[in-house]
Design goal:
By secondary structure, the chain is mainly α. It has four helices and no strands. The chain has one domain. Helix 1 crosses helix 2. The longest helix has 14 residues. The chain starts with 6 loop residues before the first helix and ends in a 7-residue tail after the last helix.
Length: 64
């Protein structure tokens, strides 16, 4: 799967993944899981493009 995101959003995701020491894929998977998006997409609830767009624009939650 691939999605088109802005260069700014891509840079933010890459920087955050590097800061956490994980791949961008792992970061996105965790963010989607935290927000319940994966379940909603799989069950057909909600709007996938809207949810993915919101996911990409929402700053990641930093847990310490």
């Amino acid at each position: 799967m691939s999605i088109d995101i802005s260069h700014k959003t891509e840079a933010r995701l890459t920087d955050e993944a590097r800061r956490q020491g994980v791949s961008v894929d792992a970061l996105l998977e965790r963010l989607m899981s935290e927000r319940g998006t994966a379940t909603q997409v799989a069950t057909g609830n909600g709007s996938t493009p809207t949810r993915l767009h919101a996911l990409c624009l929402t700053p990641p939650t930093i847990l310490r």
